User: Fold this.
Amino acid sequence: MERSARKLLITGVSGYVGRAVAPPAAAAFASVTGTYHRHAPAASPEGVTLTPAAIEEIPALIRALRPDVVLHTAAAWRTEEEARAVIVEGTRGIALACAETGVRLVHLSTDLVFDGERGPYAEDDPPAPVNFYGAAKAEAERIVAEVFSRADEGRPSTPFHSAQDGPALPRGAVIVRTSLVTCFDPPDPRTAPVLAALRGEAAAVTLFTDEYRCPVRTEDLAAALIELAQSDFAGVLHVAGPERLSRYELGLRIAAYYGLNPAAGIRPGLSSDSGMARPRDCSLRIDLARRVLRASLHPLPKP
Ligand SMILES: NC(=O)c1ccc[n+]([C@@H]2O[C@H](COP(=O)([O-])OP(=O)(O)OC[C@H]3O[C@@H](n4cnc5c(N)ncnc54)[C@H](OP(=O)(O)O)[C@@H]3O)[C@@H](O)[C@H]2O)c1
Assistant:
């Protein structure tokens, strides 16, 4: 990876994705600052300057620091109110500060902006979220697109678009929709409880056979985000894994990877019986990512 002379600000560097992206970011950028909120990392990731900042303080940080790029991963959604405050209003402030100061924005979004009725989804399929997390992320996407389209008014190039439609804007924003960010070893926060159940260290878990996603390897997502931070691609991009797997199939993969008996820790179940508003098939098409990214999107590791 080329090392750029530029400055990067990562929001949410204390989160799962933020922690994964910090090492490749430090290798790729001359200067990297990362924000945290409630969980101060025990040690600074090498090459990253840590800064405490609540979401509403980040716009001022952008104006003061004047990074070249902001990689926005911070999010919280324990309640609908929190999702609105952090995901919707937090992203609005960050997008406005970036657009005003000419800072490129790489905004991390989710496959859950879709309703799960017509997967696999392409970048230009219309979002139709079924839960408040997806709704907040979809609204944040709309805000980023609108703020950057407005900032580009009067420029000779076309407004917010994806690279397939024409030349990318020199600066601008990327909305990266990703899926379950997955690592078997060390286990990501969703893999860890499944592994604990498979090892008999926790009660067995029920995993849905009728709910599909395209899990992406954590290191592949991190590499793609750094590449996008350095590129001039503007628009929406799906960065997910190449396999469509049910939650249960994902559990079977974890068991196989560790050579554990799946029957000991995971049980198949039906999302449709759960009584929850959960999208059934949020698998993503990644044809565009394959065309525009040098970073590869691998299947999950096999034993
Ligand atoms: N992980 C996945 O499978 C997945 C899948 C699709 C999309 N995404 C998207 O990827 C992004 C990162 O997800 P993640 O799994 O890394 O989430 P995470 O582990 O929960 O991390 C969230 C980050 O946001 C920060 N944050 C939370 N509330 C904040 C506030 N009020 N002000 C400032 N910072 C705040 C947290 O800081 P503290 O911990 O220090 O409080 C943390 O650094 C999110 O935008 C999410 O929607 C994730």
User: Anything to note?
Assistant: Helices lie at 16-28, 58-65, 80-101, 132-151, 191-198, 218-230, 247-258, 287-292. Residues 69 and 104 are 5 Å apart (CA to CA).
